[in-house]
Design brief:
This protein is mainly alpha-helical and about 220 residues long. Helices cover about 85% and strands about 0% of the residues. The chain is built from nine helices and no strands.
């Protein structure tokens, strides 16, 4: 709260000084006092709005990484992670969580993206894969494409898609780029589904073995 108040105060002070500086500069250039006042105030208001919007975007996009508990540290250590590994893992997962939230929030803002998400179940799969990785941090290397390519690329794409889709006026070229972007997003969602299946392959193999054993048991009982 104190940091927020300090930032707001600094923004107002900076805008005030900028307004005063521009006013004195214009007076020094022998500009009409009334005109100088209007222009300097206008510049000050513009600067104040710009800094305010930037602060809101920064605040909305920044979610602090939670503190590492002793229990979690012991869990990571039990999985063979060093202190450096733990820090790297936590930073990577924190960034991934932010990207999943970005994908979820932006896909809900577009009917087209919502349909793509529903068809691929992307958000649910991403969250499920995120939880599975958190349980097995030693397998981080097995999901490098998901964490470093597919997830960040999809997050960037959906943000840009929604931004362009919200344009008040659209040309044919705009609709074309939206269509191409939607196709790329759909493919990227498919790749995330493949990432999930690939990571869970051991579970699938175990289930396949269980099914085969069950079949043999049933066949044995039938004879």
């Amino acid at each position: 709260m104190k940091r927020s108040t300090l930032h707001t105060t600094s923004t107002y002070i900076l805008s005030l000084f900028a307004t005063l500086f521009i006013f004195l500069l214009m007076i020094g250039l022998d500009l009409n006092a009334f005109l100088a006042m209007i222009l300097s105030i206008g510049t000050g208001v513009f600067l104040l709005n710009s800094l305010g919007k930037r602060a809101k975007v920064k605040k909305a996009s920044r979610r602090d990484m939670p503190r590492l508990s002793q229990e979690k540290e012991q869990f990571y250590s039990s999985k063979g992670l060093s202190k450096e590994d733990i820090q790297y893992f936590r930073e990577t997962m924190h960034k991934a969580k932010e990207q999943v939230l970005t994908i979820d929030e932006n896909m809900q803002q577009s009917g087209k993206l919502r349909a793509i998400e529903n068809r691929n179940n992307t958000v649910a799969l991403s969250k499920a894969l995120f939880k599975d990785i958190a349980k097995e941090p030693q397998k981080l290397h097995e999901v490098d494409k998901f964490l470093y390519v597919h997830l960040p690329s999809l997050a960037d794409l959906v943000v840009k898609y929604v931004e362009i889709e919200n344009h008040k006026a659209k040309s044919k070229a705009t609709y074309d780029i939206l269509d191409k972007s939607a196709q790329t997003i759909d493919k990227m969602c498919g790749q995330i589904a493949e990432d999930y299946v690939r990571f869970k392959k051991d579970d699938i193999k175990d289930l396949d073995v269980e099914i085969e054993l069950a079949k043999r048991t049933l066949n044995g009982q039938s004879h």
